[in-house]
Amino acid sequence: MKRFGLATQIFVALILGIIFGIVFYGNETAMAILAPIGDIFIHLIKMIVLPIVIAALIVSIAGVGDIKKLGKLGGKTLFYFESVTTFAIAIGLLAANLFQPGAGVDTSALKANDISKYEETMKTTGTPSVAETIVHLVPTNVFESMTKGDLLPIIFFTVFLGLGIAAIGEKGKPVLTFFEGILEAVFWVTNLIMKLAPVGVFALIGVNVAKFGAASLLPLGKLVLAVYVTMIFFVLVVLGVIAKISGTSIFVLMKVLKDELILAFTTASSESVLPRLMDKMEKFGCPKSITSFVIPIGYTFNLDGSSIYQALASLFVAQMYGIHLSVMQQITLLLVLMLTSKGMAGVPGASFVVILTTLGTMGLPIEGVAFIAGIDRILDMIRTAVNVLGNSLATIVMSKWEGKFDQDKANQYVDSIKESNVA
């Protein structure tokens, strides 16, 4: 396997996982044997996410040191995130009107999946107001936020801790050195875990295909097609134009991130590529101070793929039940999604919870989401890859905006990739 790159290994694992799932469709014993392997891989990834986010942000912020510079970068970053995700939601709504994926779907022919756990989460969190979202940023107990994996309050605390370390000067240097060591050590652990990626992908895909079967896709094939076509359009046109304006190419970026995009796609987990993504963007010419700040925050605020999916899925449910939404109602839906997609960040099954909350707010039947549950994994794969690509591009845009992008370093890295592919 050493002669093959990680991307090739993962792709082979994906194909083998699909074959396994088809052969052992409905076989509970086979699924029970394989499921823990995939779960362990995802757990290993989740295990290293928080240490990386905390250490990277502290190293980044303490390195910047100047609160005015940080505030300027933060303001630009959030403005960019909000602009692009709002555009993504609008494209999702337009695509739903164009494709009409929910029209003519026979609900009696589909198996409604259990969404009780998502409904429970929705009831617990409710529909957050702007004030509640802002209040949620400030943790009452940062360790409690860590145990919940709630990134927003963790980021808030870490930003202040990084500023504090910078403010105390010489006394803060040992602490900064400590977190730099943590970051390097966790990156080493990440490289070790990534060697298991093909095995993890095989298990995750195999179990899902064995559980739902290829036949379960057919009644909802129109929705799958609509989501994939819209995502590809968004990447090539919207992100492509943004990349062109920022002086790079979306195709070059995809080539640089080939391994990470395939891994994110096959595992449906953006967390699985977080450490490697930060490392790659630094090699591609983005300074560590910007990379370590933009990417972790982007994992909460800049989810382009999820935004498109949530918009499409919301209108899909309305169309499935024959409910027509006027232009004004769809504009309201866009505004609701702008709020709920940010307010639900860090909640388990966030995309599902966002859709449920949005449907409840708009007075649409939330039970309609149950029909999507069976194919959610397939939809999650493409939206995760788009999220990863969007955050990578955001790092380049912010680096260029701050005038700190190293074009020579980027060119050298791209050339080294070409040479390794030839070899």
Automatic annotation (TrEMBL):
Keywords recorded for this protein, A-Z: Cell membrane, Membrane, Symport, Transmembrane, Transmembrane helix, Transport
Cell compartments where the protein resides: Cell membrane
Annotated source species: Neobacillus cucumis
Disulfide bond listed as a keyword: no
Single GO term (MF): symporter activity
Membrane topology field: Multi-pass membrane protein
GO biological process: dicarboxylic acid transport
GO cellular component labels: plasma membrane
Protein name, entry field: Glutamate:protein symporter
PROSITE patterns named in the record: NA_DICARBOXYL_SYMP_1, NA_DICARBOXYL_SYMP_2
TM helices/strands, residue ranges: 7-25, 40-65, 77-99, 151-169, 181-205, 225-245, 321-340, 352-373
InterPro entries cross-referenced by the UniProt entry: Na-dicarboxylate_symporter, Na-dicarboxylate_symporter_CS, Na:dicarbo_symporter_sf
